[in-house]
Amino acid sequence: MPEGLELESRRRIYDFLTANPGVHLRKIGQVLGMSTGMLSYHLGYLERNGVLKSEEDGHRKRYFIARAFVEAQRRILAVLRQDVPRKIVLELLFFGERTFGELQTSVGVSKSTLSYHLQKLMHREVLLRGRRERESVFSIKDLEEVRKLLLANRSSFQDDAVDRFADLWTKIRT
Predict the structure, then answer these.
(1) Measured distance CA(157)–CA(144) in Å, rounded
(2) What is the reported pLDDT for 21?
(3) Which of 15, 37, 41, 151 is least crowded, fewest Cβ atoms below 10 Å from its Cβ?
(4) H/E/C letters for each residue in the chain?
(5) Rounded to 5 degrees, what are φ and ψ at 15?
(6) In angstroms, rounded to a whole number, what is the distance separating the alpha carbons of residues 135 and 12?
(7) 148 with 113, same domain?
(8) What is the domain count for the chain?
(9) Residues 93, 112: one domain?
(10) Confidence (pTM)
């Protein structure tokens, strides 16, 4: 057991983050029934002692077991924890390269919302933008890593689309 997990509350946080990597403070508090102040204290303690790592995600911090993921994996998991980016990534996993228009139709968000999330995914080095004739097309930068992380953490997403992808991927591989 890593040092710093002597207290039951810290063990609960550790166990939760083992099963749900990349979750933010409020979600951890909701699920574990801990106050924000107490949770912040324990998360800070565990991070200072090298048990946890956090990733800044806009105005939120997402938490991970320190030795479980490298930086690139933390970036991918952080975006997969968000609904719209996860829908974009799943669309690209199911169908490969997609244009902006195809993504907008399938994801069902406004142009500005889609543009914002695509920029975020490219900035976090999850997506690549290429050209097909006069249109931009988007694809996943490290397809195998994204698949692996999505499948390994399938149960923590609670998303039917993730389950469908995992079931389809399993059938293809057997």
Answers:
(1) 18
(2) 93
(3) 37
(4) CCCCCCCHHHHHHHHHHHHCCCEEHHHHHHHHCCCHHHHHHHHHHHHHCCCEEEEEECCEEEEEECCCCCHHHHHHHHHHCCHHHHHHHHHHHHHCCEEHHHHHHHHCCCHHHHHHHHHHHHHCCCEEEEEECCEEEEEECCHHHHHHHHHHCHHHCCCHHHHHHHHHHHHHHC
(5) -60, -40
(6) 48
(7) yes
(8) 2
(9) yes
(10) 0.79
In a domain, 105, yes or no: yes
146 token code pair: 């994204």
**Whose structure tokens read 């710093």?**
4
Q: Which of 16, 43, 68 is the last residue of a domain?
A: 68
Q: Are 132 and 119 in contact (CB under 8 A)?
A: no
Contacts of 69 (CB under 8 A, 6+ apart): 21, 53, 77
List the domain range (segments joined by +) for residue 29: 8-68
Query: What pLDDT does 89 receive?
Result: 93
Residues in the chain: 174
| pLDDT surpasses 90 at 64 | yes
Q: Which tokens belong to 32?
A: 């574990």
| pLDDT of 152 | 86
Place of tokens 């806009």: 58
Q: Are residues 63 and 110 in the same domain?
A: no
The closest of 138, 33, 140, 23 to 82, measured between CA atoms, is 23
Q: Do 64 and 98 lie in a common domain?
A: no
Which of 68, 85, 108 is the last residue in one of the domains? Answer: 68
